């Protein structure tokens, strides 16, 4: 969702900057964690005794600041063209944060939304995409994952899904996917009885 469907970068930066300053974490220590669940990031940075309170604090910061959360190019068109029952969001956000950002961005909400709260392991483990495929009623190999981060693409490949990457947050050279485009505005979707075709925009 974040960096793929919606641009939440200003809010994310504000929240994590505040959190890092409060916990004595440097920007260098935070780097390279995009697309991973907050709990996983915190587990890499803080001792066990501090993690529960630290997680509660970042959840508070992120859910109360949605200023500037907007759809990325092509998102609204994509979610309007594709049938809601054939689309899922699989995000590293918690359930409350996902709902807040979906609401703030005003994007069409798919019927299936899988959050880090719904799985045992978050990205880069395949669990979020396996859960989304299950809830949609399709085998993973019949699903296409759209991602902006290496951790998410690793999760998609591990799940057996096809991959489409957007370069909204990560340089093209760092994205290993079946197809890489700038944003969802660069593709067109064609709904068929047997599936959905994706093609490059003219």
UniProtKB/TrEMBL annotation:
<protein>
    <submittedName>
        <fullName>HAD-IA family hydrolase</fullName>
    </submittedName>
</protein>
<dbReference type="InterPro" id="IPR023198">
    <property type="entry name" value="PGP-like_dom2"/>
</dbReference>
<dbReference type="GO" id="GO:0050308">
    <property type="term" value="F:sugar-phosphatase activity"/>
</dbReference>
<dbReference type="InterPro" id="IPR051806">
    <property type="entry name" value="HAD-like_SPP"/>
</dbReference>
<dbReference type="Pfam" id="PF00702">
    <property type="entry name" value="Hydrolase"/>
</dbReference>
<dbReference type="InterPro" id="IPR036412">
    <property type="entry name" value="HAD-like_sf"/>
</dbReference>
<dbReference type="InterPro" id="IPR006439">
    <property type="entry name" value="HAD-SF_hydro_IA"/>
</dbReference>
<keyword id="KW-0378">Hydrolase</keyword>
<dbReference type="InterPro" id="IPR023214">
    <property type="entry name" value="HAD_sf"/>
</dbReference>
């Amino acid at each position: 969702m974040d960096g793929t469907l919606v641009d939440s970068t200003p809010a994310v930066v504000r929240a994590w900057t505040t959190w890092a300053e409060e916990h004595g974490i440097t920007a260098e220590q935070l780097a390279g964690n995009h697309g991973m669940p907050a709990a996983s990031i915190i587990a890499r940075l803080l001792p066990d005794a501090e993690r529960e309170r630290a997680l509660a604090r970042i959840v508070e910061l992120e859910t109360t600041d949605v200023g500037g959360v907007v759809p990325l190019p092509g998102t609204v068109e994509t979610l309007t063209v594709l049938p809601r029952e054939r689309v899922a969001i699989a995000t590293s956000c918690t359930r409350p944060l996902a709902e807040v950002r979906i609401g703030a961005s005003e994007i069409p909400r798919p019927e299936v939304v899988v959050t880090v709260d719904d799985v045992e392991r978050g990205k880069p483990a395949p669990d979020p995409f396996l859960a989304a495929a299950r809830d949609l009623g399709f085998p993973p190999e019949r699903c296409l994952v759209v991602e902006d981060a290496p951790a998410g693409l690793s999760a998609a490949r591990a799940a057996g899904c096809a991959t489409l990457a957007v370069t909204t947050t990560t340089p093209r050279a760092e994205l290993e996917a079946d197809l890489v485009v700038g944003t969802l505005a660069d593709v067109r979707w064609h709904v068929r009885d047997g599936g959905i075709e994706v093609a490059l925009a003219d």
